[in-house]
Amino acid sequence: DGGITQSPKYLFRKEGQNVTLSCEQNLNHDAMYWYRQDPGQGLRLIYYSQIVNDFQKGDIAEGYSVSREKKESFPLTVTSAQKNPTAFYLCASSIISDRGELFFGEGSRLTVL
Amino acid sequence: LAKTTQPISMDSYEGQEVNITCSHNNIATNDYITWYQQFPSQGPRFIIQGYKTKVTNEVASLFIPADRKSSTLSLPRVSLSDTAVYYCLVVGVGYSGAGSYQLTFGKGTKLSVIP
Fold first, then answer.
1. Does residue A16 come out as left (phi exceeding 0), alpha (psi in the -120 to 50 range) or beta?
2. What tens digit of pLDDT does each residue of B5-26 get?
3. Of A5, A30, A41, A99, which to mutate for an interface test with B (greatest number of B Cβ within 10 Å)?
4. Which residues in chain B touch residue A4, judged by CB atoms under 8 angstroms apart?
5. Contacts A–B by Cβ distance under 8 A
6. In chain A, which residues have their Cβ closer than 8 Å to the Cβ of B49?
7. B63: contact with A, CB 8 A cutoff
8. Residues B45, B76: Cα–Cα separation, whole Å
9. What does DSSP assign to residue B76?
10. For chain A: N or C, fewer Cβ within 10 A?
11. Chain-wide mean pLDDT for chain B?
């Protein structure tokens, strides 16, 4: 089945540690996105990429980094510079069009201890 | 760039029809209106998309008046499993090369279905 796979589903980290969240898609989509969701809030865009080896900052990119070395993969690193990293992280992909239907993964919940 | 406004929450009894309205006063000529559904601890799921008049699929209907400054998502005969947050987005030309604004989700409408 085609889809988006995020891992791990749950992750605990100590303050000061970097952590990388994985996102893989087999939908052959060009565009991929990372969102952050806090309790009771909507989704906020962290980074997005429309082509391999290129990506743009979203609304809240500070303290995060990404790479897009392969079309299928768009990992997100939460660095120690992110002051409040505990959140639910969602990865999505889409074809590039003026309609923009997003396909989301199941999410990764990061808790900083 | 079109910004959307939705009610924060709504309650409905099982079996009733639910209508959730979204305002998008600054919608551009080539923008599409898209609705997503999100259950707790899951990623949002595409429900329906439209440009004008009415669109219907197996899950919902989307009503868009002629001026396109608002849209209404209609869920027929809701069940407890329809309890979720519903997001309205306006996505338009320039999406592929523009900034993040068109990809921003608001807080959505939390629908609670009561037995």
1. left
2. 999 999 999 999 999 999 999 8
3. A99
4. 43
5. 78
6. 99, 101
7. no
8. 18
9. S
10. N
11. 88
- pLDDT digit string, tens, across residues A20-41: 999 999 999 999 999 999 988 8
Q: Convert the pLDDT of each residue in B48-71 to its tens digit.
A: 999 999 999 999 999 999 999 999
Nearest to A59 among B41, B87, B104 (CB): B104
Q: How far apart are CA A49 and CA A23, in angstroms?
A: 13
Beta-carbon contacts of B49 under 8 Å, excluding residues fewer than 6 positions away, are A99, A101, B32, B33, B34, B35, B55, B62
Handedness of CA A11, A54, B43, B40 (dihedral sign): positive
How many residues in total does chain B contain? 115
Ranges of chain A with pLDDT below 70: 1, 97-98, 100
Q: Which two tokens stand for residue A53?
A: 């080896």
For residue A46, give the chain B residue with the closest CA.
B100
Report the pLDDT value the prediction gives residue B69, as an integer from 0 to 100. 94
3-state secondary structure chain A: CCCEEEECCEEEECCCCCEEEEEEECCCCCEEEEEEECCCCCEEEEEEEEECCEEEECCCCCCEEECCCECCECCEEECCCCCCCCEEEEEEEECCCCCCCCEECCCEEEEEC
**Contacts with A41 (C-beta within 8 Å, 6 or more apart), sequence order:** B107
pLDDT single digits (tens) B65-98? 999 999 999 999 999 999 999 999 887 655 444 4
Is beta strand B84-91 parallel, antiparallel or unpaired with respect to B109-114?
Answer: antiparallel
